[in-house]
Design brief:
The protein is an alpha+beta fold and 852 residues long. The chain is built from 13 helices and 50 strands. Helices cover 16% and strands 32% of the residues. Helix 6 runs parallel beside helix 7 (279-289). The strands form twelve sheets. Strands 1, 41, 43, 44, 48, 49 and 50 form a seven-stranded mixed beta sheet that branches.
Length: 852
C-alpha cells in the first residue's frame, strides 16, 4: 500500500523545531556517494555497438551537458563492457545530470576498502580444501587446473612468492596482468593519485592471499597448496598499498581481463545493499556472455541484515559466493606448559596489546578460578603477579578492565580464557593500552590450565611453533559475517558457499609470507579455483552452465544458530550450500536451472519446470523430494528465524532420464501458511533428486518472499525522524523548523535527509511553490537505489535552488526564484509498477524559504 506522509506545516514546525534544539545528526551516518556513472543509450561494445557510435554518444553528451549548464569533472570513459563515463558533480546537480540527452541512467560510484588482514605468521596447509572435495579432485582425479587462465582483480599478487611461481611474465605462473592505479592510489581521497604501471606487485596482501587459495603450489614442505595449483594467473591490481578502490577501476580491469582472454575472473570485492542492475554487476554478466566464468564474494555484511549482498556478486550471471567457517583453526601461535610436555596451546593475540613473544618462560598464576564470576574485575594486591603470566577467566567486566588490573599487579602477560564454548576470540583489551602481551585461548584449554594450577606450580613457555585446533564450534557452518540475500529484485543470492572463515594462505613475502584471514573474500577464490578444476576436466563447458553444475552437487549445511536441531540454514544465506567440486566433476547428470527464484507469493503458488539431463551411458531414474530450510522474519536489520516450510509438489515424483537424453518435472511451490510465517518474510528450501544408481544426488535451491513485496515501507524514521529538512554544520546536520530561510548565494542550501529502509526502484524529488502549489519540476531522479546499511543511516541530498525542465537535448536547469517552497520526495518500491500509485511512497516537506 502507498504510504503518504504530508505533514501539516504547523505540526511540522513544532516537531522540527524541537528536533533542531535536541540534536545534531552525525555526518558519519551519511552514506551519500561523491561521484556518478553516466550510462548512455546504446549497448556497450561487447554487445556489438560500433566504436564510432560509442564515441559520438559521448561527444553528444558533453555538448548537451554544456548547453544545459551542467558543471562536472569527467573521470573515466568506458566503451567495452559499459557505455558511458564517470563524473564528479555536485550532489545537487545529479537530477540535471540524469536528464541530459542520451543518458539512460545515473549510478553512484562506490568505493571498496581493502579488507583488513590479521594474524601474519608462518605457513600451514589450507585444510579447507578437504571441505569441498578439492583434495579428492587433486589426488584421485589428477586435476590441478593446468592450462586454465584465472584473473585476480585485487591488490595485485606477490609473484616472487615461491608458492606462486617466483616470477612475472610469459612462462611464469603469474603470466598476465598490470597495475591500474599505483602504490599511492586511494579512491577515498578527494583527489586520488592514479599512476598505473605494468607491474602488479602486491604491497597490501589481500590479492596474494586470494591467489594462494585459488592456486598456490607449495614450494617447500611448509608451503601452501591451493585449490587448483596448476592454473596460470592474471593479476589486475585495482588497489594501492592502502585505502580503497572504485567500481570505475574495476570495470577497466574487467575490460583488460577480457582482452587477455582470461577464462575465469575472481573478484573478492563488492558493494553491499546494491542491485543486480548496478554497473559492475552488469559488466560482469557481460563477461559471462563472452565465455568467462565470473566469481565474486557476496559480501561481509551479515551483521547488517537481509538484502545485504553486493554487486558484482549480485550479477544475474555471476556466481555470488557465501562463506563457511573452516573446520580447523590453522597456524595458531602457541605456548607450552611444564605440566603437559609436548602439548601446544594455540591462541589469538589480543587487539590493542603487544604481540606475544616467541621465547621466554614465566610462572603461571591464577587470579581466580573457572567458577569465579568476576575474575580480575577488581584491583589485585600490589606485586601479587610480579613477573608472572596471569590466567584470567572471561566474564562480568570487560577484557580491558581485567588486563589493566593484572598489569597493575605486576603481571608480565595475561592469558584470557573463554567462559563459554564459543571458540577463540580476538578480544579488544584497550584502552588503556597495555604494555604486556595478552592472548586468548578456548574454554577447554583454560579449564585445563586452571586444573593444573590447582594441583601445583606451572611454568608457561612462549614458543615459535604453530599449531592447529579443530574448530568444533563453527566449523562447516555459515560464517557470522556472510551477507544475506535475497537480491532486491528477489533473485536468489548468494548462489553457493565455500570455506572463507579462518583460511591460511600465501601473503607477500615482505609482510610475513603467509596469513590467516577470514571473509567472503576467501570463499570466492575457492570457487574460482574449483571452476578451474572443472574446466580442466570438461574444457568445453559453457560459462553460463558453470554455476548450475556447481550448485547441483553442493551440500546444504545446518543452521549456524544451533546445528544440533537439524534445520538447514537459510537458502538466502548459503545458496546451494557447500561446494563439492569432486562430485561436480564426476557427475553425469544435471538439473537446470540450478536455482529457482520464486518472487513474491501474493499471486499464489509458483510453478517452475526443472530439466534433468543425463550424459552417461545408462538410464537413471530420479525420485523427487523436498528439504526445507529455515525462513527469516520481516525485520530487515535484525533477522529472526522461523520454521516456515513451503508446500512443495513435484510431478512426476519419479522420472527416468535416458542415457544421452533429458526429462522435465514440474514443481509447484506454495509459501508457508500465515500461522507458520509472518508476511514480508523470506523462505526457501531444496528440490532433491535422488538417483537410483548411487551417483550424486542433485539439488535445486529455491527461495521467495511471502506476501506483497511492495508492502515493505521504504521511508522510515531511521531513529531521527527522517525524512526531514536540515542545514549542514561542521560534522553533521541540524534539523530546521518550518519556514527556515536558506541563503543560497552564501552556499547555505536546504539539505534533505532521507533514510531508505529498503532498496527502491526510483527515487525522485520535486519542488512546489508552498502557497500556490505550482510545480517547479524535478530536483533529483535516480533508479535502482540501494538501501541504507543500518537502521539509522541516511542519505543527505542538498538542493541548490535549481530544478530540471525537459529532458534530452532540451534539458536545462531552471534557477528557481526566491520564495517559499516544499519538496516532495517520492519512492517507487522495489519491483513496483510505476503506473500504480499504491506502489509509491511520498513525503512532502514543511515549507522553507530560499533567498538569493
Amino acid at each position: 500500500m502507498m504510504t503518504t506522509r504530508l505533514f501539516p506545516l504547523v505540526l511540522a514546525s513544532m516537531v522540527l523545531g524541537a528536533a533542531a534544539r535536541a540534536q545534531t545528526i552525525d555526518a558519519s551516518r551519511n552514506e551519500s556517494p561523491r561521484a556518478w556513472f553516466v550510462e548512455l543509450s546504446s549497448a556497450p561494445g561487447v554487445d556489438g555497438t560500433s566504436p564510432a557510435t560509442l564515441k559520438s554518444e559521448k561527444q553528444a553528451f558533453r555538448a548537451a551537458a554544456r548547453q544545459a549548464g551542467l558543471k562536472y569533472t569527467e573521470r573515466f570513459a568506458f566503451d567495452t563492457l559499459f557505455n558511458g563515463i564517470s563524473v564528479s558533480v555536485d550532489r545537487a546537480d545529479v537530477g540535471l545530470l540524469s536528464q541530459i540527452q542520451g543518458v539512460k541512467n545515473v549510478w553512484p560510484v562506490h568505493t571498496y576498502a581493502i579488507p583488513p588482514t590479521t594474524d601474519v605468521a608462518n605457513p600451514d596447509l589450507i585444510t579447507a580444501i578437504t571441505m569441498t572435495g578439492a583434495d579428492v579432485a587433486q589426488s584421485s582425479l589428477g586435476l590441478t587446473g593446468a592450462g586454465v587462465r584465472v584473473a585476480v582483480m585485487d591488490t595485485g599478487i606477490d609473484y616472487k612468492h615461491p608458492d606462486l611461481g617466483g616470477c612475472f611474465g610469459p612462462g611464469c605462473r603469474v603470466a598476465f596482468g598490470t597495475d591500474l592505479v599505483g602504490d599511492a592510489y586511494d579512491a577515498g581521497q578527494a583527489n586520488p593519485i592514479i599512476a598505473p604501471d605494468p607491474d602488479p606487485m602486491d604491497c597490501a596482501g589481500h590479492g596474494t592471499h586470494v591467489s594462494g587459495i585459488i592456486g598456490a603450489r607449495a614450494a617447500s614442505p611448509t608451503g601452501v597448496t591451493g585449490v587448483a595449483p596448476g592454473v596460470t594467473f592474471g593479476a589486475y591490481r585495482v588497489f594501492g598499498c592502502a585505502g580503497s578502490t572504485s567500481d570505475e577501476i574495476m570495470i577497466r580491469a574487467m575490460e583488460l581481463a577480457l582482452a587477455d582472454h582470461m577464462q575465469i575472473l575472481n573478484m573478492s570485492i563488492g558493494e553491499a545493499f546494491t542491485w543486480p542492475q548496478s554497473p559492475t554487476a552488469v559488466a560482469a554478466s557481460k563477461l559471462v556472455d563472452r565465455g568467462m566464468v565470473v566469481v565474486a564474494s557476496i559480501g561481509n555484511s551479515g551483521a547488517n541484515g537481509l538484502y545485504s549482498g553486493g554487486a558484482p556478486g549480485l550479477g544475474d550471471k555471476v556466481i555470488g559466493v557465501a562463506s563457511f567457517d573452516n573446520i580447523f583453526l590453522n597456524g595458531l601461535n602457541s605456548f607450552s606448559v611444564s605440566t603437559d610436555p609436548g602439548r601446544l596451546f594455540g591462541y589469538f593475540n589480543g587487539s590493542g596489546s603487544p604481540i606475544a613473544p616467541t621465547a621466554g618462560s614465566f610462572e603461571l598464576a591464577r587470579t581466580g578460578t573457572r567458577t569465579s564470576a568476576a575474575d580480575a574485575c577488581s584491583a589485585l594486591p600490589a606485586g601479587s603477579l610480579s613477573g608472572k603470566i596471569a590466567l584470567v577467566r572471561r566474564g562480568t567486566c570487560g577484557f580491558a578492565v581485567k588486563v589493566a588490573n593484572a598489569q597493575a599487579a605486576g603481571a608480565a602477560g595475561v592469558v584470557l580464557y573463554n567462559n563459554q564454548n564459543t571458540g577463540l576470540l580476538t578480544p579488544l583489551v584497550s584502552p588503556p593500552t597495555p604494555t604486556i602481551p595478552v592472548v586468548f585461548i578456548t574454554q577447554a584449554d583454560g579449564n585445563a590450565l586452571d586444573a593444573r594450577l590447582a594441583a601445583g606450580p606451572v611454568t608457561l613457555t612462549w614458543t615459535d611453533q604453530l599449531t592447529s585446533s579443530p574448530n568444533t564450534l563453527t566449523g562447516g557452518l555459515i560464517s557470522s559475517f556472510s551477507s544475506y540475500g535475497l537480491a532486491p529484485d528477489l533473485t536468489l543470492k548468494p548462489d553457493i558457499g565455500a570455506p572463507g572463515g579462518f583460511i591460511r594462505s600465501t601473503f607477500p613475502l615482505a609482510l610475513g609470507g603467509y596469513a590467516n584471514l577470514s571473509g567472503t573474500s576467501m570463499a570466492s577464490p575457492h570457487v574460482a579455483g574449483a571452476a578451474a578444476l572443472f574446466l580442466q576436466a570438461h574444457p568445453k563447458t559453457n560459462a553460463h552452465a558453470m554455476r548450475d553444475l556447481l550448485q547441483n552437487t553442493a551440500s546444504p549445511k545446518a543452521w549456524f544458530g544451533n546445528p544440533g536441531l537439524g534445520f538447514l540454514d537459510n537458502v538466502h544465506r548459503q545458496g546451494a550450500g557447500m561446494l563439492r567440486i569432486d562430485k561436480a566433476v564426476q557427475a553425469t547428470t544435471a538439473a537446470t536451472p540450478g536455482k529457482l527464484s520464486l518472487g513474491e507469493s501474493q499471486a499464489g503458488p509458483a510453478t517452475r519446470t526443472v530439466t534433468l539431463t543425463n550424459s552417461g551411458s545408462s538410464d537413471v531414474t530420479f525420485t523427487a523430494s523436498f528439504a526445507p530450510a529455515l525462513a527469516t522474519g520481516p525485520n530487515t536489520f535484525t533477522p529472526s528465524f522461523f520454521i516456515g516450510d513451503a508446500g512443495v509438489a513435484v510431478s512426476p515424483a519419479s522420472v527416468t532420464v535416458p542415457a544421452g537424453g533429458s526429462a522435465t518435472v514440474s514443481a509447484t511451490i506454495t509459501a508457508p501458511p500465515d500461522a507458520a510465517l509472518p508476511d514480508n518474510s523470506l523462505y526457501g528450501g531444496y528440490l532433491v533428486f535422488t538417483p537410483d544408481d548411487g551417483s550424486a544426488t542433485l539439488r535445486v535451491p529455491f527461495a521467495g518472499f511471502k506476501g506483497d513485496y511492495q508492502s515493505i515501507q521504504v521511508l522510515t524514521g531511521g531513529g531521527s525522524g527522517f525524512p526531514l529538512v536540515a542545514r549542514a554544520v561542521p560534522g553533521g546536520f541540524v534539523p530546521v523548523a518550518a519556514g527556515t530561510s536558506f541563503n543560497l548565494a552564501a552556499g547555505d542550501f536546504p539539505t534533505f535527509l532521507v533514510h531508505l529502509n529498503h532498496q527502491s526502484r526510483i527515487f525522485r524529488m520535486e519542488v512546489f511553490d508552498a502557497a500556490t502549489g505550482r510545480a517547479w519540476h524535478r530536483a533529483d531522479n535516480e533508479s535502482f537505489v540501494g538501501r541504507n546499511s543500518t537502521a539509522t543511516g541516511f542519505f543527505a541530498i542538498p538542493w541548490n535552488g535549481v530544478t530540471v525542465i525537459g529532458n534530452g537535448n532540451g534539458a536545462k536547469g531552471i534557477v528557481v526564484p526566491a520564495g517559499t517552497y516544499v519538496m516532495k520526495v517520492s519512492v517507487l518500491k522495489a519491483l513496483g509498477d510505476e503506473s500504480n500509485p499504491a506502489d509509491w511512497e511520498t513525503w512532502t516537506s514543511p515549507a522553507f524559504s530560499i533567498a538569493r
